[in-house]
Design a protein that fits this description.
The chain is built from twelve helices and eight strands. Bound molecules: sulfopyruvate and magnesium ion. Sulfopyruvate (SPV) binds next to helix 3.
Length: 297
């Protein structure tokens, strides 16, 4: 399913960020058909910085919640693979066990730092990183989509470096390439797609160059757009505002109309299914408890 979405350059698909079971369920309700388990957003929701402060076991636990609560294909932000080829393949094996549909590995060094923080983003050696990808590919076999991400433009290298890295990663067995840019326009991305000629499907993350209309990416035959951190940022703004108002107003009366109702919470997670299951599996017992049937004793 994820393979079909990501690896199809004829139709543009979207992956929505999720960072926990709630954001995953909400994205599903909004009819997104695939999710991006964002390293930044998961770190943020756990109270960490996007600098490999969360351990890989913490990440796979969150991924499991995202997968379970949405039952959607999830592309996991695997950062740099949490170390060398061996760490990368170990994490990949665990992600597959937890139900991930794909993993994206970037050519940064451990510990990574979010692409938009500061200016020091040392890149991994191309050959070493290609080995990391091959190890992941051999581990994931055909079960997981392997997306190789180059941070060449983030690190301030030119287009030639980005292209030669992308070609090396394609040779190493990647199924798709993420080309990342921190510019506020899509110029870099579009010159990459022109030169790349769609050797592999291209995945982009238009966090900074958000003003570019999506039709431009369709024309450029981009395969997938990742909305990487928007529910996390929306939640942050909403939580900040609600805290501010409750503190200021010493009441929740004013904010009630602006927050989700409890009914919405119960509906999203199908509490009615629990009631039906209870009737099905605990029926006689419930009835006995409620004194509705004769127990015969
Ligand atoms: C993430 O969502 O964690 C990403 C995208 O890797 S970015 O934050 O733009 O690096
Ligand atoms: Mg990330």
């Amino acid at each position: 399913m994820l393979r079909a979405e990501i690896c199809n350059s004829r139709e543009l698909s979207f992956l929505m960020e999720a960072h926990d079971g709630l954001s995953a369920a909400i994205a599903k309700r909004a009819r997104f058909t695939g999710l991006w388990a964002s390293g930044l957003s998961i770190a943020c929701s756990l109270g960490y910085r996007d600098a490999n402060e969360a351990s890989w076991t913490e990440i796979v636990d969150v991924v499991e919640r995202i997968v379970d609560s949405s039952e959607l294909p999830v592309l996991v932000d695997g950062d740099s693979g949490f170390g060398n080829f061996n760490n990368a393949r170990l994490v990949t094996r665990k992600l597959r066990q937890r139900g991930a549909a794909g993993v994206a590995i970037e050519d940064s060094c451990f510990p990574k730092l979010n692409s938009f923080v500061g200016n020091r983003h040392p890149l991994a050696d191309i050959d070493e990183f290609s080995g990391r990808l091959r190890a992941v590919k051999d581990t994931a076999a055909d079960d997981l989509v392997l997306v190789a991400r180059t941070e060449a433009l983030i690190a301030g290298h030119g287009m030639d470096e980005a292209l030669s890295r992308a070609h090396a990663y394609a040779d190493a067995g990647a199924d798709a390439i993420i080309i990342h840019s921190r510019r506020s326009t899509a110029d870099e991305i579009l010159s990459f797609t022109r030169a790349w000629q769609n050797r592999l499907p291209v995945v982009i993350v238009p966090t900074k160059y958000y003003r570019t209309p999506i039709s431009i990416y369709r024309e450029a035959r981009v395969s997938t757009v990742i909305w990487a951190n928007h529910t996390m940022r929306a939640a942050m703004a909403a939580m900040r505002e609600v805290c501010r108002r409750i503190m200021a107003e010493e009441s929740t009366a004013g904010i009630e109309p602006n927050i989700a109702t409890l009914e919405e919470v119960f509906e999203l997670f199908e509490y009615d299914e629990l009631a039906r299951a209870e009737a099905e599996y605990c029926g006689p017992m419930l009835n006995r408890k409620q004194g509705l049937v004769e127990t015969g004793s």
